[in-house]
Amino acid sequence: RGSVKDFPGFDASQDAEALYNAMKGFGSDKEAILDLITSRSNKQRVEICQAYKSLYGKDLIADLKYELTGKFERLIVSLMRPPAYSDAKEIKDAIAGIGTDEKCLIEILASRTNQEIHNLVAAYKDAYERDLEADIVGDTSGHFKKMLVVLLQGTREEDDVVSEDLVEQDAKDLLEAGELKWGTDEAQFIYILGRRSKQHLRLVFDEYLKISGKPIERSIRGELSGDFEKLMLAVVKCVRSTAEYFAERLYKAMKGLGTRDNTLIRIMVSRSEIDMLDIREVFRTKYEKSLYNMIKEDTSGEYKKALLKLCGGDDE
User: Fold this and answer.
1) Name one GO cellular component term (predicted).
2) Fewer beta carbons under 10 A from the terminal one: N or C of the chain?
3) For the domain 12-80, what is the CATH superfamily, name and number?
């Protein structure tokens, strides 16, 4: 359900040459660069990087960084990296220096599949020669840290694992760990929300509503706090619908004054080949305007054009 597909009749060397020519001489042909890169799939872009290296003995990403600037450069460079390396770079930036971008950690770790998490851990190791878990542990604390570590294992049960007895038990355990307890047993929340399959958890949430009379989200807001609460809510949202989670993140990134460009870039790049069509559909229904239109009103220049190409169409 992606908006970006493999380009038919793809020729890596030809594309590498076209990019080389677009960057040759004084100034660069940004239009040509963005048209080419946004109409190739990630796999194809990686091949273009390799062809560029063997034709010109230069690093395409380094050349693009040199030629382009600002948000447009960030977007294009992000598109050139394999997804796991893109995630690794985002996380590295989120924990580098003083302060932590918790929202970025939450978004990536709450929404990725087991396989994507394994790929991310390996890419991080390869790119930075560091252990992702150790870096996250060093940069976060408390229950927030514990849940991130659980998610980093990438050991969520697969969707065909559902047992009715366990659904009732889990719902009861969550109720007893939160609403029915003086204080909260966070470990129960971490265990159940971090390990069970999505299919199973959807049933647990239905059962929870039945026995407690309130949605699990409301209990989480009442029982947990801070980044841990935000992380758990993100996990619940992704379990219910990943597309809806991202539609909401995109809307929040653009509404009001100023745009959270890093969030916008990260989501448009990471979902363009996975579920952009679903995200657009949910966005249209939920906010009564198309994602395409909102991007159009909120951004400008080549940056806007590239984002609109990734969006892949208007649903108005």
Assistant:
1) calcium channel complex
2) C
3) Annexin (1.10.220.10)
Q: How far apart are CA 185 and CA 128, in angstroms?
A: 36
Tokens 């559902």 belong to: 162
One digit per residue, pLDDT tens: the chain, 316 residues?
899 999 999 999 999 999 999 998 777 799 999 999 999 999 999 999 999 999 999 999 999 999 999 999 999 999 999 999 999 999 999 998 777 899 999 999 999 999 999 999 999 999 999 999 999 999 999 999 999 999 999 999 987 767 788 999 999 999 988 877 766 788 999 999 999 999 999 999 999 999 999 999 999 999 899 999 999 999 999 999 999 999 999 999 999 878 899 999 999 999 999 999 999 999 999 999 999 999 999 999 999 999 999 999 887 7
Question: In terms of CATH, what superfamily is 242-311?
Answer: Annexin (1.10.220.10)
CATH topology of domain 164-240: Annexin V; domain 1 (1.10.220)
Distances (CA, A) of 202 to 60, 164, 166: 44, 12, 13
pTM of the model: 0.92
